[in-house]
Design brief:
Elements (H helix, E strand, L loop, with lengths): L6 E2 L7 E2 L3 E6 L1 H8 L5 E6 L11 H7 L3 E6 L14 H5 L4 H14 L3 E5 L26 H16 L3 H10 L19 E5 L20 E8 L6 H13 L3 E9 L4 H13 L3 E9 L11 H11 L7
Parallel strand pairs: 3-4, 3-10, 4-5, 5-6, 6-7, 7-8, 8-9, 9-10
Antiparallel strand pairs: 1-2
Amino acid sequence: MVCGLVLAGTAAGRPDVAKLLLGITGDPARFKSQTSQKSVIKHVFLGWQQGMSWGTRMEIFLPQLSPIPMLHLGIGGPGAVRRARITPLQIARGQGDAYLVYLNTAIANYGSLVYVRPMAEMNNPNALYSPVSKTGRSRGPAYSPQAYRLMFSRIYLILHGGPRSAINAALRGLGLPLLGTQQDLPANPMGKLRVIWNPLAGVGGWLVFYPGDKWLDLVGNDMYGEGVDFSREANEELYAFARAHKKRYSLPEWGVSIDQYVFVRYICDFIRSHAAIELAAYFDSKGGSKWDLGPKQRSRQTYRSCITPLELYP
């Protein structure tokens, strides 16, 4: 069984994770054959209410992602996955509480560490929950940055759980409706649950989505190598922001669509030179995917020689 995160103090008084976690979206066995990486983190994307009202039940699904699941929560699916089933404002106002309470209990019963990324890349117009569509049109107040911040805070509170009175006091302080259930929720401390706030650095406008230091456990950024410019400066800026707010950092999604070994080397050097990076997960290892490392010989070799040795988790 995987234990909780081991923390060690630094000279600056800010804790760092003692072991770096590496992960994968896709086929872990395929990725191991390419890179020798064990991939302790298994990353999946969930539609709204997936695992509860549709799809494999979460209590069955989570063990399949052992030892450490990483769940991205979205608002689409099933079927028409590009259509929102709920809005950020509706979640903020408690209309999604049944699913959040269900996830809280499923995470508690899993008995080990779980990462959750609620609605990542919220500043990316390709996301269903972005305030602005790909055509540049506003999606209205139900998708505003304020609605996102309040939604994120509510998700954080309910997933971490604890006494109903404490959760309701926090919701009341945020000006949000109280928790619907009349019972206390299982407590998921940070050693069991880590909630990632994950904008897309380099796109712009991410700061308005920051929910506040109380309502996230670490900051994440997604990076993809598809050409010469892959937002090094923006990544460094977001990392500096995370450290200024005493949050650790992560790369929940990163990958190359072409054989761009220079980008893989950048990721390796970035991890090596920044002590507060908690996890990095490659996207993705599936046959036929444009992100698959299989046909990218130099990128694959660079990953194997530079990044795989960084996987310190046993």
